[in-house]
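Deliverable D2.4 — example input (structure tokens):
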């Protein structure tokens, strides 16, 4: 188990016993200095941001089946730019049913309020933050016969933008998949999943383009423990998009995603991640975008109650049918000091840099955060 995920007797939250359920409340407050809150190329403006966060997880303790409900709330208040204040929240129930012969059925739903970060190319650049509500549901049934397993899954997601003038970004996305797999060994699974996907935008974009699309594709994945110290979970495949608008060229794109975990020592874990995804975009004139990313994370336990972390990542956003390509680099280091099972102190530093084909969209910024966390 990775350093940040393992249990720490004497420092782990025990939760509240509700009889069949266990409740895990969490809360925190932090202060961040951001030297470029608008992620601007030239007119940089600094500010102090106070964040107040609360979370609640209820998890069943049944002998069979499992139900968990997660709730999160975060409010950020800007000292000198109160028009940038924002509140985000999430409610996410998840149900897993254990059926006969190791078969399972899962149902997950989500309702959340999200804010697009100023560092994201999808940020509209308005005076106020770009906010949207997300409604999502996913269901999956997996059956098993000896070493083979097969299933069906379906998902629907709705993004509804709140900001005035962003109605052309509202969209609904449907996905249907048929995973087929085989347990090569007790430590290795191979999965093939063909899928279909539909994207339905409510309106044409400001250029008059229709971004609705039907897509078909497939991935093949491998999940294995190469050794007890090195685990790999990776999939690769393709997606073929057929756009409703004739001005967009239909395209076949490579997609992949996964993570490799190296347990260097009992006190140090290294994670490497890579992904390439086909994503819907609200950028006018673009049919979609291909986002490629890679990252490396280091987790280290200096002492049983002192945790150190470092991360470096790269993200490329390539907007199809539009002359825009953005590169982002992110570097972060942090530490957490566990005072007892209920309170911890944290400190983080983050550096962000973006290079874009679009004029005045380059930026760099530094963020320093000090925080106090509580849990029960």
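Example output (designed residues):
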């Amino acid at each position: 188990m990775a350093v940040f995920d393992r249990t720490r007797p004497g420092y782990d939250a025990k939760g509240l016993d509700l009889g069949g359920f266990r409740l895990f409340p969490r809360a925190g407050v932090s202060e961040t200095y951001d030297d470029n809150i608008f992620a601007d190329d030239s007119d940089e403006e600094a500010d102090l941001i106070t964040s107040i966060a609360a979370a609640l997880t209820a998890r069943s303790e049944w002998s069979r089946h499992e139900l968990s409900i997660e709730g999160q709330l975060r409010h950020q208040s800007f000292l000198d730019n109160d028009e940038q204040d924002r509140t985000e929240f999430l409610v996410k129930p998840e149900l897993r049913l254990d059926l006969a012969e190791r078969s399972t059925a899962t149902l997950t739903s989500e309702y959340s309020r999200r804010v697009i970060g100023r560092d994201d190319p999808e940020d509209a650049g308005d005076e106020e933050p770009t906010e949207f509500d997300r409604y999502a549901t996913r269901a999956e049934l997996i059956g098993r016969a000896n070493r083979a397993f097969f299933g069906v899954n379906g998902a629907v997601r709705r993004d509804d933008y709140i900001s005035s003038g962003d109605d052309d970004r509202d969209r609904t996305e449907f996905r249907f998949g048929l995973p087929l797999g085989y347990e090569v060994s007790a430590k290795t699974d191979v999965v093939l999943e063909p899928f279909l996907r539909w994207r339905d935008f409510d309106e044409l974009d400001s250029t008059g383009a229709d971004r609705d699309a039907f897509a078909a594709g497939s991935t093949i994945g491998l999940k294995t423990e190469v050794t007890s110290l090195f685990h790999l979970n990776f999939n690769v495949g393709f997606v073929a998009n057929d756009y409703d608008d004739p001005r967009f060229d239909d395209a076949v794109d490579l997609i992949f995603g996964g993570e490799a975990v190296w347990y260097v020592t009992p006190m140090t874990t290294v994670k490497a991640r890579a992904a390439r995804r086909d994503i819907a975009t609200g950028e006018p004139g673009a049919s979609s975008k291909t986002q490629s990313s890679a990252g490396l994370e280091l987790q280290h336990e200096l002492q049983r109650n002192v945790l150190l972390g470092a991360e470096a990542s790269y993200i490329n956003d390539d907007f199809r049918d539009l002359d825009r390509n953005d590169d982002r680099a992110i570097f972060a280091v942090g530490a957490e000091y566990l005072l007892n099972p209920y309170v911890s102190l944290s400190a983080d530093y983050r550096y962000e840099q973006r290079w874009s084909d679009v004029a005045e969209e380059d930026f760099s910024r530094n963020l320093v955060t000090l925080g106090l966390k509580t849990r029960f």
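The radius of gyration is 22 Å.
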